[in-house]
Amino acid sequence: MLHECVGNHEFDFGSDILVQRVAESKFQWFGSNVRDKATGNVLGNGLDTTLFPIASTAQDGAIQVGMFGICTPETPQLSFPGDKVEFQDILGTAKRCVDDLKARGADVIIALTHVSIAHDKLLAKRVPGIDVIIGGHDHDPFTMYQGKTFIHKSGQNAYWLGRLDFDIRKASGKVTVSPAWKMIANQNVTPDAGVEALVHKYMAPFMTADHLEAGARQLAVLSLPLVTKTSVMRGEESNFGNLVADAVRQELGAQFGVLNGGFVRGDTVHEAKSQLTVGIVLKEMPFPRPAVLLRIQARDLKEALEQHLRHYPLLSGSFPHVSGLRLTYDRTRNTPEITTFQDELGNNVDLDDYVTVATTKFIAGGGDGCVSWKKATLLATDDTIAQVAIRFLEKKRLIAYPEKEGRVTIVD
To answer: Can you give the residue ranges of the 5'-Nucleotidase C-terminal domain (predicted)?
Structure first.
């Protein structure tokens, strides 16, 4: 029995494309809180809840297992679901699903979720009756109990395979669930021949001589390492983030450049003396989102950057990487704020001035909940961020970005 819970990145190409992919898949999709506005049904004819029996040696007979699935309500700020989809409240949805499953005789209830660990904990605290939460969305593995609810996440990008085993006992109407889990590192593992053949089938159109030659085209050589580790991109200044922010700023002719850390996906370190190729840049920034040039009042830009930083010290895809700016974010204040807001020459930016900023279309639309960007005026749209970076790198040829330049400083 195969089940999947829809997540925010399923909407990266819009809800219509997602519905097509769901129809083509051979497993069932949960989207208990993801509704088609026109019909009120789960998007793509997905599942709201399901109930199935598992064999038991208990005298009370088979154990009934109920399941439902929850997607992050922040999807409209994280991706591109469009206006045909409604993301309903997760607590209300979970309570409704638990009540429905209990009424149908569920002994054990499992929630598949694609929400933050904070939301998983909230579900466990506020919705009685959930025995197990199996979650995604967060990039790091996580296993814990919140009250009587067992919560497990296996991390990102198949770095780990998580195996969960449950000892479920039922006697005199009382059910106990005892979990055991194993995390298997996906290192030095021989690929499954069948899976490898399937991947090759779908990759074949992109493995032609022309594609391979284009991907291997050298853009620049690194004098110093470039870091794209998720833990860095989402929590501190990164030299790769600085490079891309410089690229969009210079190529679009802006005063400043801003890139959200979640835009970069390579999660690696490119060592000194290695080459940056077209293929590497496209792998690092796979989202086909264009760079845009905006005009915005500096006061609103400062407010937007404070919104980017609001999750710190938690890792967040909103963490900003900047070009042409030097800023200090002071978290020791009652209300954390940017206290130093200067250009690259050390001059204070006049908050009443209007400035030009190059960034991603995603950010310009208020992505990651950074809504102050919506006050900006769109001046121009360019190539994708990756293509803009490629143009920039072709002109440089030799890249030497120090690990830190003090563009973003955090005071704790």
So the answer is: 233-370
Tokens linked to 189: 């593992």
Contact at 8 Å (CB) between 137 and 111?
Answer: no
Assigned token pair, 143 = 């296993």
Closest CA to 344 of 251, 408, 270, 263: 408
15 contacts 84 by C-beta, under 8 angstroms: yes
Q: Are 222 and 399 in contact (CB under 8 A)?
A: yes
Nearest to 182 by CA among 145, 147, 148, 141: 141
What tens digit of pLDDT does each residue of 270-288 get? 999 999 999 999 999 998 8
Give dist(CA 114, CA 90) in Å, integer: 11
Architecture of domain 3-185: 4-Layer Sandwich (3.60)
313: preceding bond cis by omega (within 30 degrees) = yes
Lowest average pLDDT, out of 12-21, 104-113, 197-206, goes to: 197-206
CATH fold of 216-411, please?
5'-nucleotidase;  domain 2 (3.90.780)
- Measured CA to CA, the distance from residue 191 to residue 8 in angstroms comes to 28
For residue 392, the SS3 value is: helix
> In the chain, where are the structural domains located?
3-185, 216-411
